[in-house]
UniProtKB/TrEMBL annotation:
Protein name, entry field: Phosphohistidine phosphatase
Organism: Endozoicomonas montiporae
Biological process per Gene Ontology, one example term: regulation of phosphorelay signal transduction system
GO cellular component: cytoplasm
InterPro entries, alphabetized: His_Pase_superF_clade-1, His_PPase_superfam, PGM_Phosphatase, SixA
GO molecular-function terms, A-Z: protein histidine phosphatase activity
Pfam families from the UniProt entry: His_Phos_1
Length: 147
């Protein structure tokens, strides 16, 4: 299976709470650019954090890729990467839309077996991982896609 871990696009700081920060115009454009590069990955499912900016990122990806979006409550910025792994689908090619620091920690845990040392993610960056099933240390990082 492939697991593509993507950080949401650039978001505004002007919002009543962190969970309600919307994408900026530039953020929507950088998401379109990254998702355009993911067209050949065979993505058949998208899972996203419930935060507005992740939902908006996932909606853009859904429109471009023609696949549905499911919301996972346990993939917000401060959630545990170990618990997040337990919520991920175990088959298919899945795009996961979330936040820093979780995207970095999750990538580190899946590839290296530890939640630190994962790659840095600018907004709308994506890590394409190859793995048999989501578990610590079992993934291989195929590539990082810049925004």
């Amino acid at each position: 299976m492939k697991l593509i871990i993507m950080r949401h696009g650039q978001a505004s700081w002007s919002a009543p709470s962190d969970s309600l920060r919307p994408l900026t115009k530039a953020g929507r454009e950088e998401v379109r650019k990254t998702v355009g590069q993911l067209k050949g990955e065979g993505i058949d499912r998208i899972v996203a954090s419930p935060y507005l900016r992740a939902q908006q990122t996932a909606a853009i990806a859904s429109d471009i890729l023609g696949v549905s979006v499911d919301t996972l409550d346990g993939i917000t910025p401060d959630d545990s990467p170990a618990k997040a792994i337990g919520q991920l689908p175990e088959q298919g090619n899945v795009l996961v839309v979330s936040h820093m620091p979780l995207v970095s920690a999750l990538t580190g845990l899946l590839c290296e077996g530890v939640p630190y040392g994962g790659p840095g993610f600018a907004t709308a960056n994506a890590a394409v991982l190859d793995l048999e099933l989501p578990a610590a240390g079992l993934a291989t990082l195929q590539k990082m896609l810049p925004a």
